[in-house]
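A quick aside before the break. I want you to see a complete sequence-to-structure record at least once, exactly as it would be stored in a machine-readable document. Don't worry about memorizing anything.
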Amino acid sequence: MSSYAFITGATSGIGLASAKALAAKGYGLALAARNKEKLEEVKKEIEGAMAVPVACFELDVRDADAIRKVSSRCLSELGAPRILLNDAGLARGLEPYGETKEEDILQMIDTNIKGLFLVTHAFLPAMLEKNEGHIINLGSTAGLYAYAGAAVYCATKAAVKTFSDGVRIDVIDSDIKVTTIQPGIVETPFSEVRFHGDKERAARVYEGVDALQAEDIANIIAFVADQPKRVQISDVVIMANQQATGFMVSKKGK
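That is the input. The structure line, written in tokens, reads:
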């Protein structure tokens, strides 16, 4: 593919919506996620609706060896990506830190920090060699405003923000762009994952508030990616209309 986006976490939520939004802009897609069957379903859907090629890569970003293998294969078959969208991420639990399960702590760190760092590390040299490309990292308002029960999640998203800033400094002499997207409350499977599949508890998070939708964030990502070469949008913070900072949300009804 001459111009494509490599997207992690591409089978649901913001990742899936972004794949569709970027495909609508004419980008080819290299989609990475853990579920091979869902990847194939997304590939079929997008290729059936839009005239863009779609490649699929089964990948768990917690697996460093898998990242090396997938990135090597992708670079060999497709070349350097025009857009690297690091979307894969998750929260686990909403308990005080002292009650947070060790496996939840490690899963958030391994996915949100180590996975994002290593995927970027795998693709950046090829992008620098081509002197072209845009790294877009999914942060969160949680990385700007901590809230109760989310110490680890907030810390991982703060890491995404400062990591992005550091990489932007390191590539300043190149034409590589780096952007951090920092959404607030978005109605996606995020809360269901956080609460380990408890759909009723997840639904209560969005009751009484007109939450952002995955498509809202995807449209902003497509806008950021579509700017001329001279324009680098470093950070975008997006909150719902009834959201002030982080977890401060008014639930007076939709």
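Two observations worth writing down. Residues 102-130 form the longest helix (29 residues). The radius of gyration is 17 Å. We'll return to this after the break.
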